[in-house]
Amino acid sequence: MTYLLNSADDFADEAVRGLVAAHPDLLSEVPGGVARSTQTPQGQPALVIGGGSGHYPAFAGWVGPGMGHGAPCGNIFSSPSASEVYSVVRNAENGGGVILGFGNYAGDVLHFGLAAEKLRHEGIDVRIVTVSDDIASNGPDNHRDRRGVAGDLPVFKIAGAAIEAGADLDEAERVAWKANDATRSFGVAFDGCTLPGADEPLFHIEKGQMGVGLGIHGEPGVRDTGIGTAAEIADLLFDDLMAEEPPRGENGYDGRVAVILNGLGTVKYEELFVVYGRIAERLQEKGLTAVRPEVGEFVTSLDMAGLSLTLVFLDDELERLWLAPVDTPAFRRGAMPDVERPARTEIWDAAEAEIPDSSEDSRACAQTIVAVLETFQNVCADNEAELGRLDAVAGDGDHGQGMAYGSRGAAEAARAAVDQGAGARTTLLLAGQAWADSAGGTSGALWGAALTSAGGLFTDTDGAGEQNVVDAVNAGIDAVLRLGGAQLGDKTMVDAAVPFRDALVDAFDADAGPAIATAARVAREAADKTADITARLGRARVLGEKSKGTPDPGALSFSMLMAALGEQLTR
Ligand code: ADP
Ligand code: MG
């Protein structure tokens, strides 16, 4: 239960503002989140870490020398948007590239991934490290597919220390993955958490029971069992983690472990210490050495009653970086070396960003892009109800609305960009961002990425040929595949997009428009055929069986928009 707030809607933003006010020596508020209040040295890689709010100290509390360079702050338990991530990176990056670090969740993967697409088109080297330490969420053979929980702390601490010590981007990325691969977490919850302003917790656990393998966004445990004593809980967590201890004497691991006992919100420090007392005994019994253990609150989940244990199996390199000095609002250790850290002098703000110069040819091409997006807007508006109805069969019913909002946002942004003299590339990049921001949802982020990626195939200085157009369409589809990670047969947009792309390659000779129109008919047939498939991905997964007999709404909307594109370009 959250007792203090001004308004539930502004809660996350106001918390960030107060955090910055309390730590002006370390943090600056920037559009989309926070960045260090000091300038990143020229050429130093930036570590931008994030996820939703509601997890303090994760993530904004870990920005400062020796750890993060910036943190986009999403709403409570929801990923920051791609433009928030982008904006924080623009404020944190200074010529050394960026590592985007976040827990492995579908929403974060999409939004950080979309920001990465845009940043790469601008020549910034972006690496993505998804923390995946939660052993309850997947098996040991799929460690990197697990979700991220309190392992965020050691992974970002270690990567940040490597950067502070002079690592370049390749090296920092290597170390971050190495830390992730050495980290395991496991947790239990005794009761659920309540969103600010809500009357009821997201879930309840029966009195005397606990949820084993909880998540940090209000996901209950994977199984319930009776609450034991503190020692029994310590044993449960410790034994399951130790089942994945790597062999000692191999790869530099000899029994040294970083240990983090993490309270999720309402477990008292004394309770944590009682549990840690038992863990210390177990470590000793197993011949393990705890290296600078941490007991306290690190990755919380609002007022969740619960705790988690994290072990990082260390070698010399990881140990050195785990122990290195760090100075952030919520995590401090040792004395930072005395280097000059000049104050930040500028804050980058999208609202003030300038439109790059463009040529007349490119502006003419941008006009066509606006016309296409306005057609998309009309098609989506006309089909909003039908697409929503299809999504409601096994999804959440918002696909029509998402497409309508997204296409309208994109068309409006493109029109505004062209009115300010933007060329084709800038127009598409801005339209892509606007689509994702306006739509929300999975398909919104994927369409945003598609437009952004397509934009990368144009310039602001040259006109575009027919081949350019086909390449741009293909680049958009590639972005959907890369970011969404869906395979053919998963019953998604991909089931229409892949046959479309194959047909386009076959049909294209000299004119893009007619070839796209031909391929769009193939896409429509493929979309209709998705009715035969059971959904396995996205929100529809849970209700997969129910989706049989209904075509996938995202596949259908894709084929409709490609038909509109073909027609528009033929005209
Ligand atoms: P949400 O699923 O977030 O509610 P929408 O309802 O707007 O988003 O979109 C649902 C559509 O998104 C699905 O019909 C499917 O075509 C598409 N989709 C979902 N996940 C993926 C994915 N991983 N790759 C490609 N398309 C996807
Ligand atoms: Mg939906």
UniProtKB/TrEMBL annotation:
Cellular component, GO annotation: cytosol
InterPro entries to which the protein is assigned, alphabetical: DhaK_dom, DhaL_dom, DhaL_dom_sf, Dihydroxyacetone_Kinase
Statement: the UniProt record of this protein carries the keyword ATP-binding: yes
EC id: 2.7.-.-, 2.7.1.29
SUPFAM superfamilies given in the database record: DAK1/DegV-like, DhaL-like
Ranges where the DhaL domain occurs: 367-567
Pfam families: Dak1 (PF02733), Dak2 (PF02734)
PANTHER family: TRIOKINASE/FMN CYCLASE, TRIOKINASE_FMN CYCLASE
Group of enzyme by EC: transferase
Keyword ATP-binding: yes
UniProt keyword annotations, A-Z: ATP-binding, Kinase, Nucleotide-binding, Transferase
One Gene Ontology MF term: ATP binding
One example of a Gene Ontology biological process annotation: glycerol catabolic process
Domain of life from the UniProt record: Bacteria
SMART domains registered for this protein in UniProt: Dak2
Residue ranges of domain DhaK in the record: 7-331
Full protein name: Dihydroxyacetone (Glycerone) kinase protein
